[in-house]
Structures are given as structure tokens and as C-alpha cells.
Amino acid sequence: MIDFADGSTTSAEGTLGMPSDWDGGTVTATFYWLVNSTQTNSAVWACDGRSYGDAEDLNQAFGTEQTVADAGSGTVNQVLKSAATPAITLAGSPAASEMAQFRVKRLGADGSDNLTATARLLGVMIGYTRS
Fold first, then answer.
1. How far is CA 38 from CA 110, 112, 127, in A?
2. pLDDT per residue as tens digits for the range 61-113
3. In sequence order, what DSSP letters do the residues of 77-106 get, joined into one string?
4. CB within 8 Å of 130: residues ≥ 6 apart
5. pLDDT value of residue 7
6. Residue 31 and residue 68: Cα distance in Å, rounded?
7. Is the dihedral of CA 103, 27, 4, 9 positive or negative?
8. Residue 53's pLDDT is what?
9. Does domain 2-127 sit in CATH 2.60.120?
10. Disulfide: which of 14, 31, 92, 106 matches 4 by Cβ 3.0-4.6 Å?
11. Are 90 and 27 in contact (CB under 8 A)?
12. To the nearest whole number, what is the mean pLDDT of the chain?
């Protein structure tokens, strides 16, 4: 769990070994989160990433981030599930079985993020297409 305070842009990174049947195409991110508030305002979540093959330098740019807004339910500490982001193109030369690094953010300064409470990120589901 990671707390993303209101009004600030913060990020976290995670690494995933992509499966051998991944087609190397775009991915999506769905956010599981909660808020310790009865607010029904929205948080804006973002994700971008990079795929790494064998013997590639780690310090490289990520692809273009995609965002999704999701609203609180009005009930304290309910698990919330966002819609999936639009398609995320990973930087690098994505291919099956590669390591993918993802960066997730809450964009508190985005005009669509009007949640004034802390959003607690519980997890992220990465969607992909199999070959």
C-alpha cells in the first residue's frame, strides 16, 4: 500500500517479468485503491513504463503515460477499482518474457483530481494481449 497525499504528484515504481505469451504490444493499468473519507470526488491515476531486453542499460526513459480518473464511493475504506487506462506503449523494444518497469502516479495537481483526501493505492493490474 502506498499513500498518495492530496494536491501533490508522487510516484512509485514496480517491476514485472512479462509472460512468455505476451505479444509485446500495448498494456493497460487498472488501479485498486481506497480513501479514508466519505468524499465522492475523483483521483487521477497515471502509468507509464519501459521494457528491457537482455543486456540493456537500466537508466532509460519511460514511454508516454496514460491516465484515468476514478471517484470515491462515499463510504470510508471501500476498495475502489478504476477503469483501465488507455493503451500504454512501453518504451524500448517490448517482447515476450522481457522485464517491464512501470511507474504509477497520482496526479494531484491535475484539474480532474479534486479529491482532497489521501488516496491509498492498494495495487495495480497490468492488462496485456497474448500472442
1. 21, 18, 30
2. 999 999 999 999 999 999 999 999 999 999 999 999 999 999 999 999 999 99
3. T--EEPPPPSPBPPBS---TT-EEEEEEEE
4. 19, 21, 22, 23
5. 66
6. 9
7. positive
8. 95
9. yes
10. 106
11. yes
12. 95
CA-CA distance, 83 to 125, in Å (whole number)?
Answer: 11
Grid cell at residue 51 = 521494457
What is the rounded distance in angstroms from the CA atom of residue 9 to the CA atom of residue 60?
Answer: 21
pLDDT of residue 28: 98
The total number of residues written for the chain in this structure: 131
Does position 124 have pLDDT exceeding 80, yes or no? yes
CA–CA separation, 68 and 26 (whole Å): 16
Output the CA angle 70-23-128, nearest 5 degrees: 15
All three cell numbers of 101, joined, read: 518497469
Secondary-structure breakdown of the chain: helix, strand, coil percentages, each rounded to the nearest 5? 0, 45, 55
Report the pLDDT averaged over residues 6-10.
73
Phi-psi region of 122 (alpha: psi -120 to 50; beta: other; left: phi over 0): alpha
